[in-house]
Design a protein that fits this description.
The chain is of the alpha+beta class and 490 residues long. 52% of the residues lie in helices and 11% in strands. The strands form three sheets. A seven-stranded antiparallel beta sheet has the order 1-11-8-4-5-6-7. A two-stranded antiparallel ribbon has the order 2-3. Strands 9-10 form a two-stranded antiparallel ribbon.
Length: 490
């Protein structure tokens, strides 16, 4: 006959088993979405990339004087086109843009072989970016032709610059590149030797695999996954960064805290001082930053997983910027991102996204109302950024082939207990392991996505080293993607 203690023990065991089985009941699957009407941008240029790589390989074994001459001729041709562009208002379909794109890419293959000319090449890209953004002020930025032209030149040019960086000695790469000293009357602070004004916008790339997914997962894959707004107090001179984070919702960070959080790249943008609303009131950026700064101090604004720009009660990172400026009559995001592929839609849906025409941080780089003021990046973090992006691009190929985001279902009971604990912490203003607004299965999918990404990365690293050993140079991005496919399948 069993003792009372044994009966209690058996009862507790049975009860825990029943509780475990109840907690094992899966949540409903996220909704599935069909492909959109638009076609995502595709370079479709594998043969061209291979040609550029062959030109780079050839240039490495060519006499320096001969390469220098070719580089100088390339600079002169592009500068002549830029001068021609500055004297006229061109439509986005103008052949001058495709000509500049081709010449710039070809020049990159030569400069990569002789990186002593890198600073001149970077200065040329900054001139190109300024000119194209100036031209785009007169375009309908929601037309596909406009979007394609701006993307091909600005993102494609960035890709070319960074291919040169990856073939250059790290000491050649300047971590801070200043584009344009756009005028501002608002309070400012010095950050790494650069004046950062109240109302300036920061876009960045985080270090997590999901950051790469945000940056790459739209019709125009970009480099940035996060947007934030700078506020500088008129009275104290103290600078703050207002941002929306998955873990906290909208929060006020110090500049040091913002920079301490992993950032693989950072770009600073500023509203143009010559747009009509800014001519009328040049203090608008400061007022916009002050508005969200004060609102964040007065109330808790949860994170908007649905990415619904019509819902101001919750805000994801881009909404912090767009809604703050909208309060003062400035409509940023001249063109919003479309997420058209059914695969990426269904993956983002598994993370809680429900709106697939939305404001992505990368869009701001192309917005004609904004100037790029400065960009911070370095060799080490840029390498990680490129590897993460290549892996995500390959994973998204599986998404478009119909693969769904899975999670380890045996972990669901534990995740639900952790979620309950997080919920209690949220009630008292704390932050738990599972973010507010994220359910247990979403948290597990997030963890599984990161695990799959890291497994591919682990397999990819020796392939990169082997490529560098065999070829004598770092793999360009298209080779990284190929190697990432091999790593995933291996």
């Amino acid at each position: 006959m069993r003792s009372k203690a044994e009966k209690w023990g058996s009862g507790i065991f049975v009860g825990l088993c029943i509780l475990y089985m109840i907690l094992m009941v899966p949540a409903p699957d996220p909704p599935e979405y069909p492909a959109g009407e638009k076609n995502p941008f595709a370079w479709n240029s594998d043969k061209y990339w291979a040609y550029l790589e062959s030109e780079f390989f050839k240039a490495r074994s060519t006499e320096t004087d001969s390469i220098d001459l070719q580089i100088s001729e390339g600079f002169a041709e592009i500068e002549e086109l830029l001068i021609s562009m500055s004297s006229d208002s061109l439509p986005p379909a103008s052949e001058i843009f495709s000509s500049i794109e081709d010449k710039f890419f070809n020049l990159a293959s030569l400069v990569a072989a002789n990186p002593t000319r890198f600073e001149f090449f970077l200065a040329l890209y900054k001139m190109l970016r300024i000119q194209v953004k100036e031209q785009s002020r007169h375009w309908d930025m929601n037309s596909q032709q406009s979007r394609d032209t701006v993307y091909r030149i600005l993102f494609g040019g960035r890709m070319a610059v960074e291919e040169v960086i990856m073939q250059s000695p790290p000491q050649i790469v300047n971590n801070v590149t200043v584009d344009f000293n756009e005028q501002s009357v608002t309070p400012f602070v010095e950050v790494y030797g650069v004046r950062v004004h109240s109302g300036d916008i920061l876009v960045s790339r985080g270090g997590a695999p999901t950051s790469a997914l945000i940056a790459r997962g739209n019709d125009y894959p970009g480099n940035f996954s996060h947007a934030a707004l700078v506020y500088v107090s008129e009275t104290t001179g103290e600078a703050s960064v207002i941002e929306s984070l998955i873990e906290h919702g909208v929060k006020i960070s110090t500049v040091d805290d913002y920079l301490h959080d992993t950032k693989l790249r950072i770009m600073l943008l500023r509203v143009r001082s010559d747009i009509p609303s800014m001519i009328t009131d040049p203090w608008i950026p400061h007022k916009a930053a002050g508005y969200i700064y004060q609102k964040t101090r007065e109330e808790h604004i949860p994170y908007d997983f649905a990415m619904d720009t019509r819902d101001g009660e919750k805000q994801f990172c881009s909404e912090v910027v767009s809604q703050s400026f909208r309060e003062w009559g400035v409509q940023l995001w001249s063109a919003v991102s479309n997420i058209s592929g059914s695969g990426i839609k269904n993956w983002l849906s598994a993370f809680g996204v429900r709106n697939f025409k939305t404001q992505q941080p990368s869009d701001l780089e192309y917005d004609p109302k904004l100037r790029v003021v400065v960009e911070w990046r370095d060799f080490k973090t840029l390498t990680k950024d490129r590897i993460d992006n290549a892996i995500v691009d390959v994973m998204l190929e599986d998404a478009e082939a119909g693969k769904r985001l899975q999670y380890d279902i045996y972990m669901l009971p534990i995740a639900r207990i952790v979620k309950a604990y997080s919920f209690i912490l949220n009630l008292f203003g704390g932050t738990g392991p599972v973010p507010e607004g994220m359910n247990s299965s979403t948290a597990l999918r997030n963890k599984r996505f990161s695990k799959d990404h890291n497994e591919i990365k682990e397999n990819l690293q020796p392939l990169i080293k082997q490529f560098e050993h065999d070829k004598g140079y770092s793999p360009p991005y298209w080779e990284l993607v190929r190697l990432a496919r091999e790593a995933k399948n291996g």
